[in-house]
Automatic annotation (TrEMBL):
Organism in which the protein naturally occurs: Aquimarina algiphila
GO terms, molecular function: N-acetyltransferase activity
Family matches, as InterPro entries: AcTrfase_GNAT_prd, Acyl_CoA_acyltransferase, Diverse_Substrate_AcTransf, GNAT_dom
Keywords per UniProt: Acyltransferase, Transferase
PROSITE patterns hit by this protein: GNAT (PS51186)
Annotated protein name in UniProt: GNAT family N-acetyltransferase
Domain annotation N-acetyltransferase: ranges: 3-152
């Protein structure tokens, strides 16, 4: 199947959100998505956008995305974080995910960053195998740490 990969546009964000919701369901958190189309547009297409998004399109339908943003490492300097690489269930196994992944790495190279990083669920063995075969390293001795809005509020309120 023929597809094109291109930079996302504002008018793509409704379809991007649909894929984000599909990913949440795949990751067994169907009710976790809070972001809106308006937020995606506001944060991704402002004068200083917070992220860059690639979309994969088949016959005017977005069937995959890769969303990245800059981070700063105190050891490495500027890096890119791959927040999500999503391929619609109907397109898995077609090479589309590999193509999006390659696009992210080409983008990182063009930006001169010293590292690209992302997280993957420990039960997503297909993705883990793919990443390891590509030369990526899994850092198994690190924990992902997060605090949600309520946790921040409670912590600050207790100060």
């Amino acid at each position: 199947m023929d597809y094109i990969i291109r930079d996302a546009r504002e008018q793509d964000m409704a379809q991007v959100l649909t894929l984000i919701q599909e990913l949440a369901t795949f990751e067994k958190e169907p009710d976790a998505v809070e972001v809106t189309v308006d937020e995606l547009i506001r944060e991704g297409f402002a004068e200083h956008p917070l992220f860059h998004c690639f979309v994969a399109e088949v016959q005017d339908k977005i069937v995959g995305i890769a969303l990245v943003y800059y981070r700063f490492s105190t050891w490495k300097g500027r890096s890119i974080h791959l927040e999500d690489l999503i391929v619609s269930e109907s397109m898995r196994g077609t090479g589309l995910g590999s193509a999006l992944y390659a696009e992210v790495l080409k983008y990182a190279k063009s930006k001169g960053v010293r590292r690209v990083e992302w997280v993957v669920l420990d039960w997503n063995t297909h993705a883990i195998d793919f990443y390891e075969k590509s030369g990526a390293k899994l850092l198994k001795d690190w924990y992902l740490v997060q605090m949600d809005k309520e946790g921040v509020h409670n912590f600050v309120a207790a100060l």
